Amino acid sequence: MSQSGNRQPVWVMTTLLLAGAALRLFGLNNLSPPGITHDEVANWLIDRSILAGEHAIYFTRAYGHEAGFHYLQSGLVALLGDNILALRLPAAFCGLLGMAVTFALSRKLFGKNVALMAAGLLAVLFWPVFYGRLALRAISLPLTSGLSAYFWWQGWEWRGEDTGHSQRRFTLAGFFAGLSLHTYLAARAVPIFYALWLAYLAIFHWRDFKQRWRGIVIFLLMFAAVAAPLIIFLQTNPGAEFRISEVDAPLQALRSGNWQPVLENGLKLLGMFGFVGTPLWREGVSSAPVFEPIVAVLFYIGLLLCLWRWRRPRYAFLLIWLGTAVSPSLVTINAPSHIRSILVLPVLTLIPAIVMHSSGQLSTLFRHLSTRSSRILLLTIFLFYAARTSVLQFQTWPNGGDVPFVWQAAFTEMADYLDGHTDLTAAAIAGWSPSTMDSPTMTLLRQNDDLPLSHFDPQEGTLILPDAEPVVVIRPSDLPLDPVWEKQLQLWGAEIEQDGRFTRYALPKQPAIELANPVDVTFGEEIKLLGYEWVNERALLLVWRVTAVPTASRQQFIHSLAADGSQLADTYRFDAPDPQGIWFPHWQPDDLILQHLTPPALDEATQLRLGWFDPATCTPEPCQNLRTGDGAKFVLLPME
Question: Are 567 and 560 in contact (CB under 8 A)?
């Protein structure tokens, strides 16, 4: 009988891990999420830089990234290739390992029954499942911090004569605490937690603290040693984390003596477990609380229980962990933020699990809740949350709010269309970021990377027609073409078809375009001006042909000039400088680039100055223009 009891956690935990794996792995490749975000694409770009030999403690691109998760992710990319599955599997693995850590930590603190309840709820709860399906580094923080807590308690509670055993556990606790700082920005709460936790132990449990002082010193030294490279880098590069300044308005208000934003955030964070959740769809189902009413009540009762028993270290541990874990969201905007509070996860389900377990123990008092009915109740809660998470993850969230836009669902459908049409020889893609994120997005989404693609932004009045038969242009249906080019495609007899979230245009071949003013000027041996024409005296049509793929970003300038040659106004098109240094070639040889634009200050202008330059050369030196065949930096177009 005892052997069966010993085996019980093994098969139960195995079942829970399988359930958790099913929710985290099913449809991971674009079922939910319905595509890929720019944040995930940026992660891939960092991974590719690692595989190319660029190594760092902290990557400053994409608003700044700690390096730890990227080395794990780049390993999967090297093994499985450049695809979404390779990017997201590390997050799923971290989520599943986080379940195991929650089980181990909970068992250490409250026994195997509480541990199974906590791990079971964590397996099927929407919050951890959601972040276990995204190619983002945040989910690695609960894993490393949870391991640190587990080994801390192993060292703290060791009662044997072998003090080396305890010290080795404290060493591991310090190692994983330091490693957690290399995962995600919210890990800045980890040293705050340990500072408060050690202060609590020193004040209220001095005798035990004093007996373990060597292990605690070893823990602190290891913590500092592992964290030191990152701390040194951030101290010597104060501008590396500029993203913080964009979201820390409540903290700045607090520093100026205004407590209201932080207090309001505190109420929101307290309420997110049972009342109203995150306001952002990109962090989950907007406004959905973490728990439904039954478990929410158990969670809040668990908090009260921890407060009642705060002098017992394991209960104080939960309170201090929870309080410090939500502090990053407490002092930033858009509270309650699930991603900035993700440090909560190792103990999140442990708190209601304590109350669930206690309800069975109290059955003799209430005399209407038997052990068997307790198990039925727990199984019902588990199945309910598995069903709830399935509905939220695969039905509600993918179609809610701005999720289809942020996760580029239209691009996913466009990639499927291109992969399914092997007869195509080229295509042009309309998007919002043609020179930065659109090209790598399509690389990750497509199975066939041999098809050459050109990218353009129709909001600039631009249309690209590739040199192919047929000529195919596709765009997200909620990103319309310039009306002039929409009408012109119809006049050329284009076949126009809307398919799901994207619209397709097809012409048999590139049309012959004749403008009123033909020109033959090539800039930098890369792009040739074929002609221009004025429409309604205020709009200008330009036609270009790509003669070679640009080797760097190219920006177009148009200056309106007065009769005396002075500059009245200017306008710019195409590749504006990107602060993160991201740029990808997005034109193909022999592409036709059509422009419809309205230059500024036309009422006073007598001619236009038109040319191209490399925006990367503009600081601190003057911009380097692309020269024409005769060495000129620009051409002049008379007003007609």
Answer: yes
